[in-house]
Amino acid sequence: MKIGHPKNFWGGMLFIVLGLTFAVIARGVPGVPFLPGYSMGTPARMGPGFFPFYLGVLLTLLGVLISSTGLKTHANDPGKVDPFHWKPIFWVLASIVAFGLLLKVIGMLLSGILLVVCASIGSEDFKLRRVLILAVCLVIFCALVFVVGLKLPIPLCPDVEALQQYRVCRG
């Protein structure tokens, strides 16, 4: 049998792997100490392992269906798999790490703007003016929701003491 549509085949295989992983972790493996499993319960009184197990089973079945459509030998569209794009992944991960490291030091307003700008650099459609407008709106919304609404102890502005400690650590 030949893979006629690689996108469907490999996408389905990913679903199968994820579904089996969820199901095995939820159910557990006897004799394996790091996979003890969770109580399944019944449909009337579901345990903590019930939903992840059946979600994993459904995801596996969906993966089998999707993969089987990719195994047709006479596909109309060969569905060439695109090359992996590292630039967006790098910039999104870098922006999240920078946000986490700088939140207490420079506050939510500046680190939030930095997060949105850095994550947007990875896009092929990057326009600084549009990104800055989005960043300011998003930071204001997050400040209203998390700091004002939920009263989370997140600094909005730079913390002078934290900046001084940062300078002392840096020498």
Which helices and strands appear, and what pairs or packs with what?
Elements: H1 6-27, H2 50-70, H3 86-121, H4 128-149, H5 160-170
Helix pairs in contact: 1-2, 3-4
Kindly describe this structure:
The chain is an all-alpha fold and 171 residues long. Helices cover 65% and strands 0% of the residues. The protein is built from five helices and no strands. The chain has helices at residues 6-27, 50-70, 86-121, 128-149, 160-170.
Q: Report the strand count.
A: 0
Q: Helical residue percent?
A: 55-70%
**Can you summarize the main beta sheet?**
none
Order of helices and strands: HHHHH
Structural class: mainly alpha
Query: How would you name the oligomeric state of the polypeptide chains in this document?
Result: single chain
Low-confidence stretches: none
Keywords:
mainly alpha; 171 residues; 2 domains
Summarize the structure.
With 171 residues, this protein is an all-alpha fold.
